[in-house]
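User: I'm putting together notes for a lab meeting next week and I want to include a structural view of one of the chains we've been expressing. I don't have a solved structure, so I'd like a prediction I can at least talk through. The sequence is below, exactly as it appears in our construct file.
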Amino acid sequence: MTEPVTEQDVVEEEEAQEILPAPSLGAALEALLIVAVEPLSSMALAEATRHPVDDVATTLQALAADYRAAERGFALREVAGGWRFYTSESCAGVVEGWVLDGQQARLTQAALETLAVIAYRQPVSRGRISAVRGVNVDGVLRTLQSRGLIEEAGTDPSSQAILYRTTPFFLERLGIASLEDLPDLSDYLPDLAELDAVMDSVAAGE
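Assistant: Thanks for the context. Below is the predicted structure for the 206-residue chain, given as C-alpha cells.
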C-alpha cells in the first residue's frame, strides 16, 4: 500500500531539486573558491550552492583540516570574513624562488625598446609603437603585459585602436615616483609635432 505524500515530503523534494548538481558539497565549494578572485563568505557560498549555511561552514572547516593533514601544497583559510585558497607555508620557499626567478629574468632588447616607446609616448597604440620600432610588436606587448609592466588604457577616439600605458609596477621597478622622473629625451627626439606626423605616415603605410 502506497503511503500518502505529506506536505513535508513535497517541501523536501523541492529543496532537493534546488540544490545545484555537483559530486558533493565539498567539491562544489572547491570549484567556487578556485575561480573566486576575492574571499567568499560562508553565506555567499551557501547561496551559490543552495545549501544551509551551517552545512557549508562545517564542510569548509573539514576541507581545511583535510588539506592540513594531507600536507598539501595549498591551504584553505578564513580571512577578512571569507574563505580562499593560499599556498601552504611549508612550500613558501619554492614559491618565493620561482617568483624571484621570474622577476629577475631580463627583458630582451626588443622588449626594452618597446617599453621605452610606451613610457615616453603613452597612451600609445600598437600601430604607433610598430611605426617607431619598424617591426611587429604583438608578441612583445604580450610579454610586457604578462610581466605587469604595461596595461590597456582605453581606445583611440578616432581609430578605436587599443592604447597602452605603463603601470605602477613599472615605476616601482625603476624606483621612481612618477613618469615625470623619467630622464628627459627632448634633446634626442625631433619636434613632437613632426614625430607625430612621421608616425602617422608610417602607420598608414605611406
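A couple of points you could mention at the meeting. The beta strands are 74-79, 82-87, 124-125, 150-155, 162-166. The chain is about 55% helix and 10% strand.

User: Perfect, that's what I needed.
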